Amino acid sequence: IAEGEPGEGREPFELPRFWDALGQTFQVTSQEATKLSLAFSRPPLPSAEDCQKLSEDVQNAVLAVATVYYWLPKGQGTTLRKMVRDATTEVVEGMIQLTDTILNAPVESLSQEQLISTGGVWEACEQVSNLPRGEYNQAAVVSALAACLGVVKDAVEEMEHALVEGQDPYGDIMEDEELGFRGNRDTYWSEADRQLLSSCMGLMKASKACLKKVLAAVKAHGKADSPEQIAQLDDLADIANEISPSVDELALSMYPPVNPLAVRLNAAKLASVLKKVLEIAKASHVCPPSEEGWVQFLTSAVDHNMNKVKNFTQDQL
User: Fold this and answer.
1) Residue 304: CA atoms inside 13 Å, Cβ hemisphere, count?
2) Residues of the chain with CATH 1.20.1410.10
3) Which of 78, 211, 85, 220 lies closest to 137, judged by CA?
4) Pfam family example for this protein (predicted)?
5) 103-147 per-position pLDDT tens digit
């Protein structure tokens, strides 16, 4: 499941039928996990015949989950497929863990590990109800972009909080005796640092704005009526996934002691990703002429802040 690729089925693919079947197989797997766990929750142990029946039922349930996942053709979009694959993998891994726990647990009583593992399978099986089921790949891409936006929002808020004038960025985690005098240059931002970091904050805020705008455009205009539209949505989700790690790397390099060249390098990486997102959005069907204004505005904002970072670090080269 983790590495295999579903093929294009011979029969016409019906999304409602797929969701119904996936929901049913996840539910059956959850029930089989409960039966298996109960059978081994107290002595006496099930007979050899009962063990055979239990293991066959578990195996059939897991194979049914995998089979339904393989119904989902590539043409429905890689973002949707990845979400379904991750959910399916989690169910299978949960069942493996539960089986291992039962095999290694003492027979006398229901172990804490067994309870946790059983709950883990239930939780994994319930995930099917959270999978995005809107118009094919469009709902999956909306979900992926919203998740990216949440992470970036948190990073921006955290850095804004740390940068409050006069605040010690390490005040909550470092003690005087650990580091010596609190005026230690390694734990404070200089005025020059703060000037550089304000431009970096500009880039981080542009990242948040970029994801918000792309998400709104996909909600408003995103379609999955043709292979080309599905592929464009997947491209947007793929490149948007690069924003959050790039924001994190930049934020980490902004803490003192500041190395201006490291900050410049990470800022340039983030700016490059943002420009790519904006280019892909502009060239796609989610960006009709009515959306081009914010694309141009955000492109200018990224260039403006990146140029300021370059100016502040020029003497370091």
Assistant:
1) 12
2) 137-167+182-313
3) 78
4) GCIP_C
5) 887 766 677 888 899 999 999 999 888 887 765 688 889 999 999
End-to-end, the C-alpha distance of the chain in Å comes to 48
Measured CA to CA, the distance from residue 261 to residue 264 in angstroms comes to 5
Q: Provide the b/e sequence for 230-268 (b: ≥16 CB within 10 Å).
A: bbbbbbbbebbebbbebbebbbebbebebebebbbebbb
Measuring CA to CA, which residue among 21, 23, 29 is closest to residue 99?
A: 29
The 3-state DSSP class for residue 212 equals helix
Judge contact between 156 and 205, C-beta under 8 A: yes
Looking only at Cα atoms, what is the longest distance across the chain? 78
Return all residues near 224 (Cβ < 8 A) that are at least 6 apart: 76, 77, 135, 136, 137, 138, 230, 233
Single pTM value for the model: 0.73
CATH 1.20.1420.10 in the chain, residue ranges: 15-128
Question: What is the Cα–Cα distance from 117 to 170, expressed in whole angstroms?
Answer: 39
Per CATH, which fold does 137-167+182-313 belong to? I/LWEQ domain (1.20.1410)
